[in-house]
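W.,

You were right to be curious about this one. When I first looked at the sequence I had no strong expectations either way, so I just let the prediction run and decided to look at it fresh. Below is the sequence, 361 residues in total, followed by the output.
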Amino acid sequence: MKTLKFSLVTLVGSALTAASAYAQVEINLSGAVAFRDTAYRSIRSLFGANLASQNPADAPATPTALKVTWTGKIPALYGDQNVTVRAFYNGAVAGVQDLTQNRNVNFLASSTAGDTNTVNLQSNIAFSSIFQQATQFTTPVLEDALFGATPINLVKSSSAPAGLTNITTHQLKTLAANGSAPAWFFTGNTNDTDPIYFINRDPTAGQRVTLFLESLFTGNPIQNQWDTTQQKFIHDPTGRNATQITTHLNNYGPAISYLISVDSFNVNGGQNVLSYNGSKAFKGTFSNTGNDFSPVISGQYSLWVYEHLLNRTTASANVRNFRTKLIESIDAELQVSAFSIPISRLRVERQADGAPVAPVE
């Protein structure tokens, strides 16, 4: 009987070992739209040549999708186990809410290119462009790792006056409080009489939170959207996502809105970025291959956000190991990024969203 018992234990142990070799590791990410280009390339880098499939099948140079699912192996982390990573960039505030309220997120179910089936699962990790304390979802407290910074650009529509080149904090507050302002208010040219409309991000966006904290705007903003039937701007009760804002600024106006670097380049090739309080986030011509972000790095430009990676304090070892490696991969990506800055290059810091920017001591 003793021998039989040993044999059964051995068989069970062997079966468990075999099962673990083929176990599936699943990591689900949600949160900030602002970092989807960096996240996309960094996650692909973790898989490397072991990436088996990806949905949708975007080329690495054009990471525009809000939902992506990858399948393959990450030997450095999980050996021979199959790994599925799902991402849905649903907004920074939404990502924090996903983790604190344990709510389900609608991911692409399969990494098979073109498969539109979805699955509702909890997120394990959230990208955020704001501190958890800047949201209404402050408990339970999440673990937070800072890994970079991304500028927010104020952007005018292609139909806005050529003389509209700068917007001040005061003008921004006036625009948000009223929903529009005459063009001369921004250009100083009394012949510019057309109204300039304000297009706002939706409440899930960390950029929206940061913009209003930075400009000290309080109250309820008045925002607009283009009505294609009436062919005019009408009141927008909710705000627009980044893709909708890009479409508005390229096709309708005159208007002003705001976008993070990678999205603002998609408005007239980045030529419509405005100075904010007399400075832009970059020096020279805005490019999609590389930019001089010294105004952000040295503190002359303050409209920027930290890049955060958040997880629950109860996160599993698989999740923690993935987060650690993802941050390493992101840091390598940011060294050559055209749109974000590795945190190691910043010579300034801030303690909260919209807080004063001060030299790193």
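Here's what jumped out at me. The first helix runs from residue 2 to 21. And, maybe more interesting for your project: The mean pLDDT is 91.

Coffee later to discuss?

I.
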